[in-house]
Design goal:
Keywords: ATP-binding, DNA-binding, Nucleotide-binding, Transcription, Transcription regulation. The chain is an alpha/beta fold. Helices cover about 45% and strands about 10% of the residues. Bound molecules: adenosine-5'-triphosphate.
């Protein structure tokens, strides 16, 4: 049974694509007209359509919504000769899973096809809770959707939440989403940047002060904790809270009441607490730099945000979103991006995570000026230099591993040579992959970017054991 249907007016192109897919253990059928393709979709169980142009007189893009509504609800990858960024955008907006310019880069198409098939298999589990307001959170990968599930769960209760993740992974954005989806959404969301609280004024900023409580206290101030009354208090960078304040704060958490600096009376504040950190609080507890009792209080629900390098399935959506936003801010037409622009961003490690991506794309849009397509050259030298360095570091030391080719008699054909060394290279890669991932297939897929079926097929083909 075929999983994939190719619809393209060029029969020779369809045949060669089918052969390439078969080499990747993917079974495809094809049609050279849209009407026949549609009929095949109604009787078959296709998960993916590779939709080319010239498949009849109509513009293939006009057919997108019809194709998406056939019973198997296939994913669609559009392949087009068009160099028009509007066409690419129209395809994605029309519900295509991805867009590939022609001539098609078959290697890349194979990767996309495998990802689309995997996405289709897991789609029912992937839908974020329907009623959740995303508050600007972009992405649909399994990892991101599992975080949205926790947002939904956290929003339905008043339990404290501890959000962890590297810098720039969206901790504040997710905290705002929890608040916006909670019953407190009509009340204030108050951010306390614990890293920026001046030592001498911590307590007055948090709990307020009475007039004349200290030299510069000319007026009464109500403090951040009281401002959050009825709403949500977000302790950002909670790992930076001084130990003395941790102690006071713990008391406030227990009674939701406190005394402003210089005040005689206790006042109350009914706030919901969210806290975030990029530090390892458990290690800080071990090192006695963070109070164990406060740590246990904070982590009612844990939300761990993944670094961008683990969210590569979301990268395409994130780029489209931020490029569109940057163009809108500059009041210019939206821009497309070349496949190697995406490849460069996929290879970069993103130490500053999504915040760094946003900056990189803002700059790329400005550098591109009036050019309609973004290319790697529009990225900063820093990103390109890092990617170049990574690629070189990853290259196997071929010279050490392959004997010099000097024997005129036994000189191999390029094909023999390539097949022999590709096989060696893949075997070597897979063995290392199994070692690093400890044979854990989900982890191995994440590291290698391979889909499960493709990884299993390669392991079998190269005779590599999961436990090697
Ligand atoms: N999934 C996402 N979708 C869209 N935008 C995102 C996403 N995640 C993060 N961002 C954006 O990335 C930027 C950084 O996010 P945010 O400030 O919430 O990160 P943070 O983890 O709190 O960072 P820090 O630890 O440095 O304070 C913001 O512009 C935010 O809107």
């Amino acid at each position: 049974m075929s999983d994939i249907l190719i619809i393209d007016g060029d029969a020779a192109f369809c045949q060669s694509l089918m052969a390439e897919l078969a080499r990747h253990n993917l079974h495809a059928a094809h049609s050279t007209t849209l009407s026949k393709g549609l009929a095949m979709l109604h009787v078959g169980e296709f998960s993916l359509v590779l939709l080319g142009d010239e498949a009849g007189s109509k513009n293939s893009l006009e057919f997108l919504s019809t194709l998406r509504e056939v019973p198997s609800r296939p994913e669609i990858i559009v392949m087009s000769k068009s160099r028009d960024p509007d066409a690419a955008e129209a395809a994605i907006r029309g519900g295509a899973w991805n867009f590939m310019p022609k001539p098609v880069n078959t290697q890349r198409l194979m990767v996309l096809a495998e990802r689309a098939l995997e996405y289709h298999r897991e789609r029912p589990a992937k839908c974020a809770p329907v009623s959740l307001r995303r508050e600007g959170i972009v992405g649909n990968s399994r990892l991101l959707n599992s975080c949205l599930d926790i947002v939904a769960q956290a929003a339905s209760t008043d339990v404290n939440v501890l959000i962890t993740g590297e810098t720039g992974t969206g901790k504040e954005l997710f905290a705002r989403a929890i608040h916006a989806n909670s019953s407190r959404s009509g009340k204030p969301f108050v951010v306390v940047d614990c890293a920026a609280l001046p030592d001498t004024l911590v307590e007055s900023m948090l709990f307020g002060h009475e007039r004349g409580a200290f030299t510069s206290a000319e007026n009464r101030s109500i403090g951040l904790v009281k401002q959050a009354d009825g709403g949500t208090l977000f302790l950002d960078e909670v790992g930076e809270l001084p130990l003395s304040t941790q102690k006071v704060f713990l008391r406030v958490l227990e009674g939701r009441s406190f005394r402003p600096v210089g005040g005689a009376k206790e006042i109350t504040s009914n706030f919901r607490l969210l806290a975030a950190t990029n530090r390892d609080l458990e290690a800080m507890v071990q090192a006695d730099t963070f109070r164990r009792d406060l740590f246990y209080r904070l982590r009612g629900i844990r939300l761990e945000l993944s670094p961008l390098r683990d969210l590569l399935d979301d990268l395409n959506d994130l780029i489209c979103h931020f490029v569109r936003r940057a163009c809108k801010q500059l009041n210019i037409d939206n821009k497309g991006f070349s496949p190697d622009f995406l490849d460069t961003l996929l290879q970069y490690e993103w130490p500053g995570n999504i915040r760094e991506l946003v900056n990189a794309l803002d700059q790329a849009v400005v550098r591109a000026g009036t050019e309609p397509i973004l290319y790697p050259q529009h990225l900063s030298r820093n990103i390109r230099a890092n990617v170049a360095r990574l690629l070189v570091a990853e290259l196997p030391e071929l010279e050490n591993r392959t004997p010099p080719l000097t024997d005129g008699e036994a000189f191999p054909s390029l094909r023999e040579y390539r097949e022999k060394h590709m096989a060696e290279l893949e075997t070597w890669y897979l063995k290392n992959l199994m070692l690093v991932s400890k044979g854990e297939i989900t982890n191995a897929c994440r590291l290698s970017g391979l889909s499960r079926p493709r990884l299993y097929a390669l392991l079998k083909q190269r005779g590599v054991e999961r436990g090697s």
